[in-house]
Design goal:
The complex is a heterotrimer of chains A (278), B (257) and C (330). Chain A is mainly alpha-helical. Chain A has a single domain, classed as Orthogonal Bundle (MetI-like fold). Chain A is built from nine helices and no strands. In chain A, 71% of the residues lie in helices and 0% in strands. Chain A is elongated, with a radius of gyration of 23 Å. With 257 residues, chain B is an alpha/beta fold. Chain B contains ten helices and ten strands. In chain B, the strands form two sheets. In chain B, strands 6-7-8-3-9-10 form a six-stranded mixed β-sheet, with helices on both faces. In chain B, strands 2-1-4-5 form a four-stranded antiparallel β-sheet, with helices on one face. In chain B, β1 and β2 form a beta hairpin. In chain B, α3 crosses α4, α3 runs parallel beside α6 and α4 crosses α6. The longest helix of chain B is centred in the last third of the chain and has 18 residues. By secondary structure, chain C is an alpha/beta fold. In chain C, the strands form two sheets. An eight-stranded mixed β-sheet of chain C has the order 6-7-8-3-9-10-12-11, sandwiched between helices. Chain C has a four-stranded antiparallel β-sheet with strand order 2-1-4-5, with helices on one face. In chain C, α3 packs parallel to α6 and α4 packs across α6. The radius of gyration of chain C is 21 Å and the shape is globular. The termini of chain C are far apart. Classes of the chains: A mainly alpha (278), B alpha/beta (257), C alpha/beta (330). Chains in contact: A-B, A-C, B-C. Chains B and C meet through α6, α7, α8 and α10 of B and α7, α8 and α10 of C.
Chain lengths: 278, 257, 330
């Protein structure tokens, strides 16, 4: 009916490959407890560190623990931190940005200055202090990482809302007297969902990397539990003698982060193509 | 015709600290009257419409619906008043949420103005309002992208009419439409006035449109009303400079009919 | 007033001959046999609503079609040259020197970072090799004839310092500064404030007349064209449905669409109230019928109209139209 010409969106192989890879990693992480794996915490001091073999595909660490099992259990924690941390960031960022953009004027000015101010803080230092102060628990890790990742999300959302607020269909909703919360929920939120989703996808790898960094510093997850970051950290001391202890979890972390970034970029390109079909 | 439906007195509207966009605007709209508001772009005519729709807060002056001050009302009364004057936009394509089905968009004002109705009943009313304007069933489930501009402007009118208002506030309702569609929408407005006794405030820059369907017209220039009269008289004997410019801007090929 | 033309040879007509274009993903052609003749030194109006293909026809002549457009058939000729088969270099030589263009939206047509004078004299300096000072004089004269007040100030200013109407007049001056043989103007006043439209149109027509240019004026407004041009062509759904001298089209139109448009437009005199409307809406490209695309909206349509492509009925000097039903009228 409409005259718009919809051109075929160029199929992006990076989007597909990265999506397939992420499905694999996610599926494995979910299935880990049901797989026939060695106990990740079972030590075998007599065995000690061994190179990858048919018995232990990824080798064992100095305490004789199976590295394959530890890497897969580590994936559960790394991904969980990435997802929950991002969810916290999206929650705070969307709410904050939406209100700033909707209210506009002086409230917006003030709220965005606060964001600018927080941008200026060395936030990693912030998280470190938080973790030291409140103890190294998973909950604190989620909150800490989420709380420093919402700033950009808030900015993106605010910009979108600011431009949507002046659109005629939002004016039409206001003119009929629809309450603000209904307008925000029914007309604003669905129309900012696409950029929020894209940015969230790109936030996951950032949070995961930050978790890895914290764990590397020994401030992340508590041993004997392991994340990819803490595995790399444990392996790093023995890198010269047993390089697979770093290389295996390091490679998996890198490829996963890469896939997440490709996936987010691909998603963004695709949505841009859908918004401007001609 | 004792109390006019709408009476505006000495309205002043300004954005922030800037000089006012509207100054000392007074007008009245009788029930069942089509009043044209003509002027150049940026003259303030759209701001006036938006202020009457409750989207801008006037700095001073009064807006009286059937003799009652709008700002002095309780929330509920305010909502009731809001129902009586519905806004219709210039660009119908922009005026609909791209992610909402048309029938839901038409039903939406009922959420506010008839909150007791069930969802099914709201939908029924929306479908009836659309059918009344000649919109087929097949359009109702579509989203705005899938509908032509002329049909979408009808949907815009259906959304305004679903709450049974007394007046329509029309912001350049035909200027974004294709030439062959404009007459359809103008005829529809004309018919609505006759069948439902609706009053209309029609903002436009086109004096020919005003002459065709308006009973009376106000010329707005630089935030003020500078001339008022019957459209034909404004066309034939403009007195104010602004009116004269608008008349001169019209392509006039006098055709031997 | 104007300089002598550099080319003294007689100027040829610009002719669109059965031009057909298609976009990928659509089964029907978007331009379906467009034929137009813009005579040297004369004015032609191209009337059509959005989606009719009037802008595409203009862009095709300028070589500015969207990349995805597929040339199905037909030509646009200037003498022996087929404009559609020119390479980029030959086309560049043509633009500005032979073909000038003015578009709808003046706000985006100028580079905001450069002065008007720089942008305007660029073609003169770089292509014609005219020294800066002399080029500046030529620009000044062009601005003056386009009724820019204080042309010296305008030359020094940047686009944002000009009003919409001024900008469009600057663009007309710019498009004609190298004295092209043809000027193609696509809805040049539609985006402007009502009060400035008249003045811009006047400048356009005057400039065209003074330079002896062939002027193609594209518009959706039959009355605007009625005031301005000698010949008019009416476009609907990718085809020319009627053409001829403006006076004939306005007084005795033969195609039902032209008649419908004239009847449906709000007038400055005559009865008020309901207008004789054209029902329905213009078809999207893939909704077009193989026969006459106007048939579903036409009150005179016969059952055969939807299937058989109407033949062109020539009226000689009075142009022609494509309708088998009104052909039989006296």
């Amino acid at each position: 009916m409409s005259g718009a010409v919809s051109l075929p969106i160029r199929k992006s192989w990076t989007l597909r490959v990265s999506f397939a890879f992420l499905l694999l990693v996610g599926g494995l992480a979910l299935a880990t407890p049901y797989l026939d794996l060695a106990d990740p915490d079972a030590q075998n001091l007599e065995l000690g560190p061994t190179a990858p073999s048919t018995e232990h595909w990824f080798g064992t660490d100095p305490l004789g623990r199976d590295l394959l099992s530890r890497t897969l259990y580590g994936a559960r924690i790394s991904l969980l931190v990435g997802l929950v941390g991002t969810a916290v960031a999206v929650g705070i960022g969307v709410l904050y940005g939406m209100l700033a953009g909707w209210w506009g004027g002086r409230a917006d000015l003030l709220m965005m200055r606060v964001v600018d101010l927080l941008y200026g803080l060395p936030y990693m230092f912030f998280v470190i202090v938080l973790m030291v102060w409140f103890g190294r628990s998973m909950i604190n890790l989620f909150i800490g990482l989420g709380a420093v990742s919402w700033l950009t999300m808030a900015r993106i959302v605010r910009g979108q809302v600011l431009s949507l607020r002046g659109r005629d269909y939002v004016l039409a909703a206001r003119a009929t007297g629809l309450p603000t919360r209904v307008i925000l929920r029914k007309h604003i939120l669905p129309n900012i969902a696409a950029p929020v989703l894209v940015y969230a996808t790109l936030t996951v790898p950032r949070v995961m990397l930050e978790e890895a960094f914290l764990s590397f510093l020994g401030l992340g997850v508590q041993p004997p539990a392991a994340s990819w970051g803490s595995l790399i950290s444990e392996g790093a001391v023995l890198f010269r003698e047993y390089p697979w202890l770093v290389l295996v979890p390091g490679a998996i972390l890198s490829v996963t982060l890469l896939a997440l970034n490709f996936f987010g970029d691909g998603l963004r390109d695709r949505m841009a193509a859908e918004d401007h079909p001609a | 015709m004792n109390t006019p439906l709408l009476k505006v007195r000495d309205l002043e509207v300004a954005y922030g600290k800037k000089p006012p966009v509207l100054k000392g605007v007074s007008l009245s709209l009788k029930a069942g009257e089509i009043l044209g508001l003509v002027g150049n772009s940026g003259c303030g005519k759209s701001t006036l419409l938006r202020t009457l729709a409750g989207l801008e807060i006037p700095r001073s002056g009064s807006i009286l619906w059937e003799g009652r001050e709008r700002v002095a009302l309780t929330r509920k009364e305010g909502r009731a008043l809001r129902r009586r004057a519905q806004l219709v936009f210039q660009n119908a394509r922009e005026a609909f949420d791209p992610r909402m089905r048309l029938v839901d968009a038409v039903a939406e004002p009922l959420l506010v103005h008839a909150p007791d109705l069930s969802a099914a009943r709201r939908r029924e009313k929306a479908e009836a309002a659309m059918a009344d304007l000649g919109l087929g069933r097949e359009l109702m489930g579509r989203r705005p992208q899938g509908v032509s501009g002329g049909q979408l402007q009808r949907v815009g009118l259906a959304r305004a009419l679903v709450v049974e208002p007394d007046a329509l506030l029309l912001d350049e309702p035909v200027s974004a439409l294709d030439v062959s569609i404009q007459a359809q929408v103008l005829n529809l407005l004309w018919d609505l006035r006759h069948t439902r006794g609706l009053a209309m405030l029609l903002v436009t820059h086109d004096l020919a449109v005003v002459r065709q369907i308006c009973d009376r017209a106000l010329v707005v220039s630089e935030g003020r009303i500078v001339e008022e009269g019957v459209p034909q008289q404004l066309l034939d004997h403009p007195t104010h400079e602004a009116t004269r410019l608008l008349v001169e801007a019209l392509p006039r090929c006098k055709l031997p009919s | 007033m104007s300089r002598a033309k550099r080319v003294s040879a007689p100027v040829l007509d610009l002719v669109w001959d059965d031009l057909r274009l298609r976009f990928p993903g659509q089964k029907n052609p978007v331009l379906d046999g467009v034929g137009l003749r813009l005579e040297a030194g004369r004015t032609l109006g191209l009337l059509g609503e959005s989606g009719s293909g009037k802008s595409l026809s203009t862009l095709a002549a300028l070589g500015l079609l969207p990349r995805s457009a597929i040339h199905v058939g037909g030509t646009i000729r200037l003498g022996d040259t087929d404009l559609l088969s020119l390479d980029a270099r030959a086309r560049r030589r043509l633009l500005g020197a032979t073909l000038g263009a003015v578009f709808q939206d003046p706000s985006t047509a100028l580079n905001p970072y450069l002065t008007v004078g720089f942008q305007m004299s660029e073609g003169l300096r770089r292509i014609d090799g005219i020294p800066g000072r002399e080029a500046r004089e030529i620009c000044l004269e062009a601005l003056e004839t386009c009724r820019i007040r204080e042309p010296r100030r305008a030359l020094r200013s940047r686009p944002h310092e000009l009003s919409g109407g001024e900008k469009q007049r600057v663009l007309i001056a710019m498009a004609t500064v190298r004295h092209p043989d043809f000027l193609l103007a696509d809805e040049p006043t539609t985006a402007l404030d009502v009060a400035t439209r008249g003045a811009v149109l006047e400048v356009l027509l005057e400039r065209g007349h003074d330079l002896g240019m062939g002027l193609l004026l594209v518009s959706h407004d039959i009355f605007l064209l009625g005031e301005c041009v000698e010949q008019m062509a009416v476009m609907y759904a990718g085809r020319i449905v009627e053409s001829g001298p403006t006076r004939r089209l306005l007084t005795s139109p033969r195609h039902p669409y032209t008649r419908g448009l004239l009847a449906a437009a709000p007038r400055l005199e005559g009865p008020r109230g309901r207008l004789p409307e054209i029902p329905g809406h213009p078809p999207a490209v893939d909704e077009r019928l193989p026969g006459c695309p106007f048939a579903p909206r036409c009150s005179l349509a016969l059952p055969s109209c939807a299937q058989e492509r109407p033949a062109w009925v020539s009226l000689g000097e009075e142009g022609g139209f494509a309708c088998p039903v009104t052909e039989t009228e006296g």
